[in-house]
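Deliverable D4.2, example record:
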Amino acid sequence: MRSALPEGSVLYSNEPVPKRASILLENITKWGYPDCYVTNNYPRDYVRSGMKFDLILCDVPCSGEGMFRKDPQTIGEWSPQNVEKCWRLQRDIVSDAWACLNDGGLLIYSTCTFNTKENEENVRWILETFDAQLLPIDTEAAWGITGSLLPGFHGPVYRFIPGITRSEGLFMAVLRKGGKTHPQPLPVKEGRKFHKGESGIHKLRVLTPLLYREGTGVGRVSLSYQQAISYLQRQALRLPPDTPLGLVQVCYQGHPLGMVKNLGTRANNLYPKEWAIKSTHVPLEAPELK
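Output generated by the structure prediction step:
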């Protein structure tokens, strides 16, 4: 989604489960875009923060029917009771997300399941509960997307069924919030810190890895290709003698890789252990960067 957003956009990615949030942080960090932040909160915490957004993707927890082909274990976890639990939880999440959406903003609702209770019936509930408009999306017939399966509901929704579309199972719909559009100013940054004003960011648990820290007292060193690979493998580095002591940002061809702590006689590698390259099949020569 970040790669499709306009330049200058700020993206917050949230996951309430700590272990999953850690994986999300790794993926977002490695993707390399600026102004991307990962939070470990519940949707209601965003409501309390007072923050507003122009676009919200609600990829809600679901019964996972679209994963049956990919992961047989999900079949054993499915039950009618879980479907009932999921559609209720999904509505709670959407209610919180809707409160954080600017007037005129877009909500993308998605699941990886097929039943209408978690899909079309929830979309219909959104239309009946909020000032919302269901938007059509340009698609091609060759993609094999299936429309609404709920009798009497003919709004533009999109179901991707394995074997019909070239994908795993997915359902999605796009809705626009009514009302006058009043764009909210984006949070102002100074380094990695936010002004604690109307942004409300200080009310959220923001996960920030010690990878791209910049500011007073932080040195910066360029690495060769082999040194960069060694760093990403979490091996020790030898830095130039004139490298400042303390935290140092290491870079490859101008791209930040992470941090080391230079002690003079050695540099402690601060790249997260769980992120380190484990494969021994590393190219001997540097690939061309464009």
